[in-house]
Here is the input.
Amino acid sequence: MKTNVAFFFGCMSVEHEVSIISAVQAMLSMDTEKYNVIPVYVTKNGEMFTGDNLLKIENYRDLPALLKSSWAVNFVRRGDKVLMVKEVKGVFAKKSETVIDVAFPVVHGTNCEDGTIQGYLEFLGLPYVGCNVLASAVGMDKAVFKDVLKRHGLPTLDCVTFYSREYAKNAENIKAEIISKIGLPAIVKPINLGSSVGISKAKNEAELVEAIELAASFADRILVEKAIENLREINCSVLGNATDCRASVCEEPFMNDEILSYEDKYLSSGKSKGMASLGRKIPADLSEERSNEIRNLACKIFKAIDGNGVVRIDFMIDKDTDTVYANEINTIPGSLAFYLWDATDLKYKDLLDEMISLAFKRAREKENITFTIDTNILAGVSLGGSKGAKGGKL
Here is the structure.
């Protein structure tokens, strides 16, 4: 019997469209002899739809028509099963229910990748692919991620963080703190976005103000760190769980500017194929010693956040000091970093299969954990609230 896999994608995120590309790529690469692929497109206002027409990327050019030809769905737990329930159309229409065995979130950005959808799936009790709630939240929050790295003695740049509303009230003091602690030039980022959205470089105070205002338009919290002037960016993927993981070969992405932009990542080929569009060199031109250093660091970072599934970790090399720094982690990377694993001799179909196996393994391990205790605490409780109420008191 085939395993029913529900792919969740879209969601209320500035990376909504990138998620669609990543998900369609993944769904079309699945082993259909082993799995039933069930697309679940989540609109920007949280409605969920399914239908085979969601498997064709060209159909998303006319979204209203696509949704009109799709089925609205919701998910319910019934006994020990999770069901996808199609909303019926017409008085005499028969309700359609499908048992879902495992969820596969292919979502990017806030309101989904940050632990939101993972919490929803945990609440349903549905096994799911990828990082858990905490690891997802840590990976999305750039400041917390840096704190975790420092706690584990892993290399990352210092930073200044603040709320945009704090900056609105106290701009001069915050600018002074940035210049004093970080210096210029600096990189300014929204704390909880990916795909390089809202990130810019500030070489002087005027540019710093512009960069902060840009970041504040995308997020309430902002991070500023030193800009490495003589920079190489190196990326590496990790696959597995916190007790057993391995790293892919490294890549060096090509940039058209001083920082790797959204356009570099997704539009550099003129026709987006997600992160697969990005110009890059695989494997990166690194010595064996440096490559092993970065791959080992990647596994240590993955374990530090209790990672699961596949992630991509972005590193920076300061060529002036020959120092490696961990930059960011993508807990659901664009295109699921399949191109890195393909270059590591793991085909996309097999990568997806291994990720699903990891999801079931975690679910089995969770079954051995106690979440409830037997108690009669409610037997003698009465909260009163009406005249003459009798019984025990809290």
The radius of gyration is 23 Å. The mean pLDDT is 91. The first helix runs from residue 16 to 28. The CA atoms of residues 288 and 344 lie 15 Å apart.
